[in-house]
Design goal:
2 domains, TIM Barrel
Length: 294
């Protein structure tokens, strides 16, 4: 998934617009976009939406962001969400593999209660929203077969750290948030799952969004969260392999295929080794252009 668009669980027509936005996934949000007094009431429209939307075959993936497991709302969020059979739960304020195991157990029980196929609901984890999460970012691997990706967040983290800002005057992330971003990326790589970049809140700044997407793609993120439908097209464009990238990846794969035992290959005056082959295959798989594994 390249683009994942947040929409409030009680967003009404916003939910329908999100489905038609071109996003690879929509995240029906019960957490940050829903105030405490509205949280119980937001579950009913969420469930109604899920029951209608998940019945369609040609649709974006549908995730539900529940409230975190330490809150009084989480269990009822999970119970309502499972009845709607979303593709995945987005777990906020995750603190390593242990928290994913905890959510997995809750999902397993609810799936059994509501006649949902066991293990059919995946998990994506927000891996850097608390200070404690920094110290367990490398523990997600092997925690659950449900876990399909990690992402990160800066807003809750800045509140916990007591920071007055998370970006500098130039718009770049300040050091604590650069660390959070890097830990998410490394934690996902260690667990062998995709890393998704966090939201860009200045949704009218298209140039800033594109720049941040390009930096995220460069560093290894495979997609990005969005907070406005207008962001989806740019995210999809940047994270989709372009023709030049696909052609180069094909050349790398073909060169190694021609010399199966080689550890390094020269192409156009540059040396490429097996990690380059792995990256080329990953890019071709992302674009649906696999030609072989050499």
């Amino acid at each position: 998934m390249k683009s994942l668009l947040f929409v409030p669980a009680d967003g009404g027509k916003k939910l329908d617009k999100a489905m038609a936005s071109g996003a690879d996934a929509i995240i029906v949000d019960l957490e940050d976009s829903i105030s405490a007094e509205r949280k119980p009431a937001a579950r009913a429209p969420m469930l109604e939406f899920l029951k209608g939307a998940t019945a369609h075959a040609n649709r974006p993936k549908i995730l539900v962001r529940i409230n975190d497991l330490t809150t009084p709302w989480a269990d009822e969020d999970i119970d309502a969400a499972v009845q709607g059979k979303p593709d995945a739960i987005l777990q906020p304020k995750a603190e390593g593999g242990a928290s994913v195991i905890h959510l997995d157990a809750k999902l397993t029980a609810r799936e059994a209660m509501h006649g949902v196929a066991p293990g059919s609901i995946s998990i994506y984890a927000l891996a850097t929203e608390t200070a404690k999460a920094f110290f367990v970012a490398g523990t997600y691997g092997g925690s659950s077969r449900r876990l399909k990706g990690l992402t990160w967040g800066a807003e809750d983290l800045s509140a916990e750290l007591g920071a007055s800002a998370n970006r500098g005057a130039d718009g770049a992330w300040l050091p604590p948030y650069q660390m959070a971003r890097s830990l998410c990326l490394a934690g996902a790589a260690a667990a062998q799952i995709p890393a998704l970049d966090t939201v860009y809140v200045d949704f009218k700044n298209e140039a800033g969004l594109r720049r941040e997407c390009e930096e995220a793609k460069r560093d290894g993120f495979t997609g990005k969260l969005a907070i406005h439908p207008a962001q989806v097209a740019i995210i999809n464009d940047v994270f989709s392999p372009n023709a030049a990238e696909i052609e180069h990846a094909r050349k790398v794969v073909a060169a190694f295929a021609a010399k199966p035992g080689a550890g390094t290959i020269g192409i156009d005056g540059k040396m490429y080794d097996r990690p380059h082959l792995a990256r080329a295959n990953a890019l071709l798989a992302q674009g649906g252009n696999v030609v072989g594994n050499g």
